[in-house]
Fold this protein.
Amino acid sequence: MTNATRPGQFITLEGTEGAGKSTNLAFIEQWLSQRGVPLLVTREPGGTELSEAIRGLLLDKHYSDMTDLTELLLMFAARHQHLHRKILPALEAGTWVVCDRFTDATYAYQGAGRGMNPEVIAQLETLVQDDFRPDLTLIMDLPVATGQARVNARSAAGGPEVDRFEQERTAFFEAVRGAYLLRAEAEPDRYAVIDASRSLESVQTQTQAVLEKALEVWQG
Ligand code: Z5A
């Protein structure tokens, strides 16, 4: 099933830590549901029972000796299960799927962050997804320091503990951010870059403009 022939739309959200993906996801869910769009919200790594179990391994600080290739393969193992057991069946049934992170995150984190060869990532992408790609990807962009300050404030307020990725240094997240922006620049039709450093209200206004356009295109 190619992007052009599937009845549902596949939208992904990306960004560095603390960019506000979870916050914006709730807004997207509400905005689309109010317009009668059948919707499934999910996340990566995760989204199915098995993929969530793999997520547990990937985020667990206990596995500090995980090799970069193990990490990459686990990301794609979780993705194959998620794609075939949850995402594709929903899209085929005409449901829109909004996913918190997808393969752009692999290019950004495992590719630019960890230094894994992008050609190897591309081979795994083809193996796992064939030619399946998101219809639209929103990149929530903000300076790394701003995102880190938000995450620290959230932790100080009793939020979740930092995970294996959030322990990384600033340079790692700078590389991740740079990779996202390069991908958006290379394929402007698929990506929308949201200025996530702005107020919540401004982020929602930017997001709404992107969704309105997507809905218009989909309705033909
Ligand atoms: N990963 C990978 O390496 N490779 C892959 O292929 C995939 C994933 C798929 C888990 O992802 C990790 O998996 C991730 C990359 C890796 N690690 N990292 N980093 P995740 O998406 O579950 O984890 P996350 O990126 O760490 O999510 P997060 O820290 O929860 O960020 P968020 O969802 O973007 O932020 P938020 O919770 O919506 O907002 C953070 C705080 O900021 C919160 O207190 C909000 O109230 C506040 N906020 C949000 N928006 C605003 C605005 N506009 N102004 C002020 N304050 C705001």
User: Anything to note?
Assistant: DSSP finds eight helices and five strands in the chain. The longest strand covers residues 10-15. Residues 10-219 form a domain with the Rossmann fold fold (CATH 3.40.50.300).
